[in-house]
Design goal:
Elements lengths: L27 E2 L3 E3 L4 E4 L4 E8 L8 E6 L3 E2 L8 E8 L4 E8 L8 E9 L2 E12 L28 H4 L17 H7 L5 H7 L5 H12 L8 E3 L4 E5 L4 E7 L7 E4 L2 E2 L6 E6 L2 E6 L9 E6 L2 E10 L5 E3 L4 E4 L4 E7 L7 E4 L2 E3 L1 H4 L3 E6 L2 E6 L8 E7 L2 E10 L5 E3 L4 E4 L4 E7 L6 E5 L2 E2 L6 E6 L2 E6 L8 E7 L6 E8 L10 E5 L10 E6 L4 E10 L3 E6 L2 E3 L6 E5 L3 E6 L8 E9 L2 E12 L6 E8 L4 E6 L9 E10 L6 E2 L9 E4 L8 E9 L23 E8 L4 E6 L11 E8 L6 E2 L9 E4 L7 E10 L2 E2 L3 E2 L4 E2 L5 E5 L9 E4 L4 E10 L3 E6 L2 E2 L5 E5 L3 E6 L8 E9 L2 E12 L6 E9 L2 E7 L11 E8 L6 E7 L3 E4 ...
Parallel strand pairs: 1-10, 3-10, 12-19, 21-28, 30-37, 39-46, 63-70, 81-88
Antiparallel strand pairs: 2-4, 4-8, 5-6, 5-9, 7-8, 9-10, 11-13, 13-17, 14-15, 14-18, 16-17, 18-19, 20-22, 22-26, 23-24, 23-27, 25-26, 27-28, 29-31, 31-35, 32-33, 32-36, 34-35, 36-37, 38-40, 40-44, 41-42, 41-45, 43-44, 45-46, 47-48, 48-51, 49-50, 49-52, 53-54, 54-57, 55-56, 55-58, 58-59, 58-60, ...
Family: Belongs to the immunoglobulin superfamily. MyBP family.
Pfam family, one: I-set
Protein name: Myosin-binding protein C, fast-type
Length: about 1150
C-alpha cells in the first residue's frame, strides 16, 4: 500500500497528541534504541524482517522487548511458521539485537506495529508501518488504508489479526464493486459515541491514529460563549488506570452536569468532581470496560461531547472447554471461564461463527461473571464437530459427538403355537412413540391384507393374522426403522391329524440326525430364551426324558424346564446363561421300544472387558495406549475394540473411534498438553460390546522440551571440561527432569554419555577426558516425554589446561582495617585465581604464620583464615601470598582486636570556688588496644550517695563542675571510653569538694488583703423535671456571691411566700425547693433569683406532674424525697433564705 499523502499520518499512530494524553504518571522515557525498525511496503508472498537494536550499557538488567500490532495485540503469542523472532547479544558493544520476521506476507499483515523495550523504570518505544501490495498491481492512494485491517480472513490470511480470525470461513463470494465513501466526512459529522461503530463498519482498527487524524482535520473548534475550552473528541486510557476529563467554563459560578451514555453521574469514590476556578474536572478512578462510553458536560443548553476508550488487557482462558459425548435430543452445554468479568468471547463451529442472528433458536449464549456458556437444545447429528471459543488472549476447543438414541424395548414379541383358524397376534412395545418399523416373515416383508393387519398405536406395534393357516408358520421379525435392532418370534402351527395307526408303534424322535453319531448344535445368545421343540411319535404315547450329562431335567416350571404335549416335547431355557452350555440328551421309550438323540447347546455372550489398560508413551498432543485381550471372548471371535477417554475429574467420556479397532495398541490424538486424561477400552464380538475396562492410570500429554540454550565452556583442565548452559526457551507442561551430557572426538559420530543419571543443575564437569584431544560436547534435556533436540558446541574443545596468572581478589570489607572484639570469631574467606593451582602462604608481621590458634584452610579457588576466640595478641598485619612458579601476588590484611579500656588514674579535685569545682585526671594505663574517644564524669554528695552523670564524651582529661549545692560535700568519679564502650571500673577522686554556706537575710513581703466582693452568679442551674403526682420532689441549684445575696423563689413568675407546701433551704450556697406531694396544679415553670448590692442573677426550670398509671399490684411505699445538690467553692460565704 503506498504511503498516504496527508502529512498528518506520518506521526506515530500509537501515541496521542499532547492534548489527548491520558492524565497520570508516565514512565520515564529514555532513548534506548540504537536502531529502530523502519516502515516498509512489502509484496504479497515475500518475506520481510524488522531489526531493532538496544543499548544496554546504562541498564542494570536485561531489557524486555515486546512486539505489538495495533492497539494491544502481543505478537509473541502468535509465534510460529508465519511469525519468527530472534534475539542476540554483543558483549563488546553491549547491544541487544532483536529481529522479527514475517514469512510469506499476506494482506492481514498490513497495519501499524509498535515495539517497546523496558528495563525497571526506563522504557522506550517506536512505531512503524507495514503496507502490503500485490505483485505488479497498482493501488490507489487512500489515507483510510493506513487504518484498515486486512480483510478476507482466509486460512493463510490475517494470522495476526484477531478480528479476522473470528470471521466465518465459508467460501469467498465475489465482491461487488462498492461506491467509494469518504469515511472522514462521516466521522466529522458523527457523534464521538458513534466513532467505534463507524470504525468497525469500515475496517479501521487503529483507533488512536484515527482520533488523532480526525482532530487535525477538524481544525480549530467553534468558539462557545459558555465553554472557554471543551472536551477533546476522544480519550484513551489503560484498564485499571484513572483518567481526568477537564473543561473550562466562562462563568466560574456556572453549574455543570456530567452525563455517561445520557445518564447523570453522581459523585462517588469512582467518579470525583473538582471545581478549581473556571476549570471543571471529572476524574474516573480504576477504569474498566464499563467506563468505555460516551460522556457529556452540560452547562445550561450547551453540551461538550467526548468518547473514552478503555484499552482492554488480553483476556485469557482460565478453564478450558470439555469434550461432550451425548445422544440425539439431549441438551449440550459448553462452559468456559475467562480471566476478566464482562469480557467478550466469540464462539465458532468448524470455522463458522455462532451468534443469535444466524443460528436462530438453535443456540443460546449465557454469561455468569467470568463464565461463558454455549447451550445447544436438542442436539442432532448435524451438530457433530469441533467448537471453538476465542478471547483476545487465548482460545480453547472441544469436540461434540452425537450418537443415535438407543431404542429401548419395553415388551418383546413372544412365540406362538396355534391351531388352524385361530388368530395370531404378535405385539411389541418400544420406548419411542415416533419410531416406525416393518414386519418380516422368514426375511420377507409382510404386506397388510384383509386377513393380515399391521397397526402402530403409540409405542405399541402389532401384527394380527386372522384364520391361521399352515403356510403362516415361520419366524416373524419386527425391525424398527433407523435402528440396528430386531425382535423375533416363532409361529408354530399345530396340525391335528387322525390316522389309523397300529396299536404297537416304537417311539421315534423326529430329528434330522437322530439315531446317528452326529451332534445337533444350537447356538443361543446369553440372556435370550431358548425353546427347542422336538416331535415324538409312538403308540402307546412314549415317555420323554431330558438330561444333561448324568443330571435329569424333568421340571415343568422354572428357568430350565420341559414342556410335554401328546406328540411334542419342548425344552425351554429362559435367560440363557454360560453355565447352560453343554450336551443335552433326549430319550423316549414305550413298550414297543426306545429312541435317543443328542443336542449340543452353545451359549455365546458379549466378551469380558479388556485388561491391563495403560499408557506407554506420550507426545505433545497424543498418547499411546496398550491393553490385553479379554480373558473370555464370549464364545465368538473378538472383532475389535472401542476406545473412550476423559479428562481426570470430569464425568464425560468421549469416544475415540466408531469403527472397531483390531489391534491392541492405539495412539490417541488431538489432546491438550498439560491436561490429565484417563482411557478405557471396550471389546466387541459378533454378539455385542463388553463392559468398559478399568480406567487407565491418569496420564498427561507432554511434548519434549526445546533444546538447551547458550551452551558454553566454563573451564578446561588436562582431563576435565566444565560446561554451562541455560534452560530451553520452550519447556512445556512436563517440566525438566534433568540434562544428559554427551561427548565424542572430533570427526567421530560415536557419542559417549558422560553422566549416568540426569543432572538438575545447569552445569557439569566432564571428567576422564584424554589430554590434548579435540572433543565435541552436546547437552539434551529430558522429561517424561523423552529427550529434547541436543544443544551442540559450535567448535571442538582442546583438552589442555590453560595457564592463568595468580591473582588475589580481596573482599571490599577487608581492604580496610578489620576491627573485632576480644573473644569473637574471625573468619576471613579470600578468593583467588590461577592455573595450575597456586601455592598459598600466610605471614604475620612479615614472619611466616605458625600460630596454632590461627587456622588456615585452602581450596582451589579460595583460602580461609579463622580464629575461634580472638585475643589482643592476634592483632597485626597478615600477608597472603599466592605463587605459581615465578609469578606471585600478595595482599595485606590488618586485624585489630580491641576491648574496653581501664579506668583513668589520679582523679583529683584541684580547686573549689563558689558553687564550682575543678577536676583533673590522667589517661588509663590500658586503652583496650584502641584510641580513647572520651570520658564520662559523675558526681555524688555525701547525704544521698547517689551518682549523677555530669558530662559524657568529654575529650580532655579535665573538667569544671558547676551548679553545686551550697552546704554539700561532693565526690567525683570518671569512666574512660573507647569504641568498645565505657571502662568497667571508674577512677574515683581522692579528695572531695565542699561547698560552704554564706549568711542570708530574709525580708518578708507586705500583706495585701484581697477584695472578695462579687455579684451573684449561679454555678449549678435548675434542671427540668417530670414527676408523678403525690410523691414529694425537690429542685436544686447553687449560687455564689459576696455579700450574701437575697434568694427569691418564684412559680410562673409569682413569688412563693408563706405557703407550707413549699420548703426552701440554703446550705452553703446550695439552694433547694421541696414540694410536698405535688398535684397536677403544681406543674409549671419555677425560677430562682439571687440579688445583692452588686447585681442579680436567675435560673429557671420546667416541672411536669404526671398522673400515676393504675397497676394490678399497687405499691404502698412512698418514694423517698430526691434532692439534687451542688457544692459551692469553699471561700463563698453561706447564704440563707429570708
Amino acid at each position: 500500500m503506498p504511503e498516504p499523502q496527508n502529512p498528518a499520518n506520518n506521526e506515530p499512530r500509537d501515541e496521542l497528541p499532547p492534548d489527548d494524553e491520558a492524565p497520570g504518571e508516565n514512565p520515564e522515557v529514555s532513548g534506548l534504541f540504537v536502531q529502530k525498525p523502519e516502515s516498509v511496503t512489502a509484496t504479497k508472498g515475500k518475506d520481510i524482517t524488522f531489526v531493532a537494536k538496544v543499548d544496554s550499557s546504562s541498564l542494570t538488567r536485561k531489557p524486555a522487548m515486546k512486539w505489538l500490532k495495533g492497539k494491544w495485540l502481543d505478537l509473541v503469542s502468535k509465534a510460529g511458521k508465519h511469525l519468527q523472532f530472534k534475539e542476540s547479544y554483543d558483549r563488546n558493544t553491549k547491544i541487544y539485537t532483536y529481529e522479527m520476521s514475517i514469512i510469506k506476507v499476506v494482506d492481514g499483515d498490513a497495519g501499524g506495529y509498535r515495539c517497546e523495550v523496558t528495563s525497571k523504570d526506563k522504557c522506550d518505544s517506536c512505531t512503524f508501518e507495514v503496507s502490503v501490495q500485490a505483485a505488479q498491481v497498482d493501488q490507489q492512494d487512500n489515507i483510510l488504508e493506513a487504518f484498515k485491517r486486512s480483510g478476507d480472513a482466509g486460512e493463510d490470511a490475517g494470522e495476526l489479526d484477531f478480528s479476522a480470525l473470528l470471521k466465518k470461513r465459508k467460501g469467498k463470494k465475489p465482491e461487488e464493486p462498492k461506491e467509494e465513501v469518504d469515511v472522514w466526512e462521516i466521522l466529522k459529522a458523527a457523534k464521538p459515541c458513534d466513532y467505534e461503530k463507524i470504525a468497525f463498519q469500515y475496517g479501521i482498527t487503529d483507533l488512536r491514529g484515527m482520533l488523532k487524524m480526525l482532530k487535525k482535520m477538524k481544525g480549530e473548534t467553534k468558539k462557545s460563549d459558555v465553554f472557554l475550552s471543551k472536551l477533546d473528541p476522544a480519550y484513551s486510557v489503560d484498564h485499571g488506570k484513572r483518567i481526568q476529563l477537564t473543561v473550562e467554563v466562562a462563568d466560574p459560578n456556572a453549574t455543570i452536569q456530567w452525563l455517561k451514555n445520557g445518564q447523570e453521574i453522581k459523585p462517588s469514590a469512582k467518579y470525583v468532581f473538582e471545581n478549581v476556578g473556571n476549570k471543571r474536572t471529572l476524574t474516573i478512578n480504576k477504569c474498566n470496560l464499563s467506563d468505555d462510553a460516551a460522556y457529556e458536560c452540560v452547562v445550561g443548553e450547551e453540551k461538550s461531547f467526548t468518547e473514552v476508550f478503555v484499552k482492554e488487557p488480553p483476556v485469557t482462558i482460565t478453564k478450558l472447554l470439555d469434550d461432550v459425548h451425548t445422544v440425539e435430543g439431549e441438551k449440550v452445554v459448553f462452559e468456559v471461564e475467562v480471566s476478566e468479568e464482562g469480557a467478550n468471547v466469540k464462539w465458532m463451529k468448524d470455522g463458522d461463527e455462532l451468534n443469535r442472528e444466524t443460528a436462530g433458536s438453535k443456540y443460546r449464549f449465557k454469561k455468569d461473571g467470568k463464565k461463558h456458556i454455549l447451550i445447544i437444545n436438542e442436539a442432532t447429528r448435524e451438530d457433530i464437530g469441533t467448537y471453538y471459543v476465542f478471547t483476545s488472549g487465548g482460545e480453547s476447543k472441544a469436540e461434540l459427538e452425537v450418537e443415535e438414541k438407543e431404542l429401548e424395548v419395553l415388551q418383546s414379541i413372544a412365540d406362538l403355537t396355534l391351531k388352524a383358524a385361530e388368530q395370531a397376534v404378535f405385539k411389541c412395545e418400544v420406548s419411542d412413540e415416533k419410531v416406525t418399523g416393518k414386519w418380516f416373515k422368514d426375511g420377507v416383508e409382510v404386506e397388510a391384507s384383509d386377513r393380515i393387519k399391521i397397526s402402530h398405536i403409540g409405542r405399541t406395534h402389532k401384527l394380527t393374522i386372522d384364520d391361521v393357516k399352515p403356510s403362516d408358520a415361520g419366524d416373524y421379525t419386527f425391525v424398527p426403522d433407523g435402528y440396528a435392532l430386531s425382535l423375533s418370534a416363532k409361529l408354530n402351527f399345530l396340525e391335528i391329524k387322525i390316522d389309523y395307526i397300529p396299536r404297537q408303534d416304537p417311539p421315534k424322535i423326529h430329528l434330522d440326525a437322530s439315531g446317528s453319531g452326529n451332534k445337533n448344535v444350537i447356538t443361543v445368545v446369553a440372556g435370550n430364551k431358548l425353546r427347542f421343540d422336538v416331535e415324538v411319535t409312538g403308540e402307546p404315547a412314549p415317555t420323554v426324558c431330558w438330561s444333561k450329562g448324568e443330571q435329569v431335567v424333568c421340571e415343568a416350571e422354572g428357568r430350565v424346564r420341559v414342556e410335554t404335549r401328546k406328540t411334542l416335547s419342548s425344552f425351554v431355557i429362559d435367560g440363557a446363561e454360560r453355565a447352560d452350555e453343554g450336551l443335552y440328551t433326549i430319550s423316549v421309550n414305550n413298550p414297543a421300544g426306545e429312541d435317543k438323540a443328542e443336542i449340543f447347546v452353545r451359549i455365546v455372550d458379549v466378551p469380558n472387558p479388556p485388561e491391563n489398560v495403560k499408557c506407554t508413551s506420550v507426545g505433545e498432543d497424543s498418547a499411546t495406549v496398550t491393553w490385553d485381550p479379554p480373558s473370555f471372548d464370549g464364545g465368538v471371535p473378538i472383532k475389535g475394540y472401542l476406545m473412550e477417554r476423559k479428562k481426570t475429574g470430569s464425568a464425560r467420556w468421549t469416544k475415540l473411534n466408531f469403527d472397531v479397532y483390531e489391534a491392541t495398541t492405539y495412539e490417541a490424538k488431538r489432546m491438550i498438553e498439560g491436561v490429565l486424561y484417563e482411557m478405557r477400552v471396550f471389546a466387541v464380538n459378533g454378539i455385542g460390546i463388553s463392559q468398559p475396562s478399568v480406567s487407565s492410570k491418569p496420564f498427561m500429554p507432554i511434548a519434549p522440551t526445546g533444546e538447551p540454550t547458550h551452551l558454553l565452556v566454563d573451564d578446561v583442565t588436562d582431563t576435565t571440561c566444565a560446561l554451562k548452559w541455560r534452560p530451553p526457551e520452550k519447556i512445556g507442561a512436563g517440566g525438566i527432569d534433568g540434562y544428559i551430557i554427551e561427548y565424542c572426538k572430533e570427526g567421530s559420530d560415536q557419542w559417549v554419555q558422560a553422566n549416568e543419571e540426569p543432572v538438575a543443575k545447569n552445569q557439569y564437569r566432564v571428567k576422564g577426558l584424554p589430554v590434548g584431544e579435540k572433543m565435541l560436547f552436546r547437552v539434551v534435556a529430558v522429561n517424561v516425554a523423552g529427550r529434547s533436540p541436543p544443544a551442540i558446541l559450535s567448535q571442538a574443545v582442546t583438552i589442555r589446561e590453560i595457564m592463568e596468572n595468580p591473582k588475589i581478589r580481596v573482599p571490599r570489607r577487608l581492604r580496610t582495617k578489620l576491627i573485632t572484639l576480644v573473644g569473637e570469631k574471625v573468619n576471613l574467606v579470600i578468593p583467588f585465581q590461577g592455573k595450575p593451582r597456586p601455592v598459598v602462604t600466610w605471614f604475620k608481621d612479615d614472619v611466616l604464620l605458625e600460630d596454632r590458634s590461627v587456622g588456615i584452610r585452602t581450596s582451589e579457588v579460595d583460602t580461609i583464615l579463622f580464629i575461634r576466640s580472638a585475643e589482643r595478641t592476634h592483632s597485626g598485619k597478615y600477608t597472603l601470598s599466592v605463587q605459581i612458579e615465578n609469578v606471585s601476588d600478595s595482599a595485606d590484611i590488618h586485624i585489630q582486636v580491641v576491648e574496653k579500656p581501664g579506668p583513668p588514674i589520679n582523679v583529683v579535685v584541684t580547686d573549689v570556688w563558689g558553687f564550682n569545682a575543678a577536676l583533673e585526671w590522667k589517661p588509663p594505663k590500658d586503652d583496650g588496644n584502641c584510641e580513647i574517644i572520651g570520658y564520662t564524669i559523675q558526681k555524688s554528695d555525701k547525704k544521698t550517695e547517689e551518682w549523677f552523670t555530669i558530662y559524657e564524651h568529654n575529650r580532655r582529661p579535665s573538667c569544671t563542675v558547676s551548679d553545686l549545692v551550697m552546704g554539700n560535700e561532693y565526690s567525683f568519679r570518671v569512666f574512660s571510653e573507647n569504641i568498645c564502650g565505657l571502662s568497667e571500673v571508674p577512677g574515683i577522686s581522692k579528695n572531695t569538694a565542699v561547698i560552704t554556706k554564706t549568711d542570708l537575710l530574709f525580708k518578708s513581703p507586705p500583706f495585701q488583703e484581697k477584695d472578695m466582693s462579687s455579684s451573684p452568679k449561679f454555678t449549678a442551674p435548675l434542671l427540668d423535671r417530670s414527676v408523678i403526682a403525690g410523691y414529694t420532689v425537690a429542685i436544686s441549684c447553687a449560687v455564689r456571691g459576696n455579700p450574701k445575696p437575697k434568694i427569691i423563689w418564684m412559680k410562673n413568675n409569682m413569688t412563693i411566700e408563706g405557703d407550707p407546701k413549699f420548703l426552701m433551704q440554703n446550705n452553703q450556697g446550695v439552694l433547694t425547693l421541696n414540694i410536698r406531694k405535688p398535684s397536677l396544679f403544681d406543674g409549671g415553670r419555677y425560677s430562682c433569683k439571687a440579688v445583692n448590692e452588686f447585681g442579680e442573677d436567675s435560673v429557671e426550670c420546667k416541672l411536669e406532674v404526671r398522673v400515676p398509671q393504675e397497676k394490678g399490684d399497687q405499691r404502698s411505699e412512698k418514694l423517698p424525697t430526691v434532692a439534687l445538690k451542688c457544692k459551692s467553692p469553699q471561700h463563698i460565704t453561706s447564704c440563707h433564705n429570708k
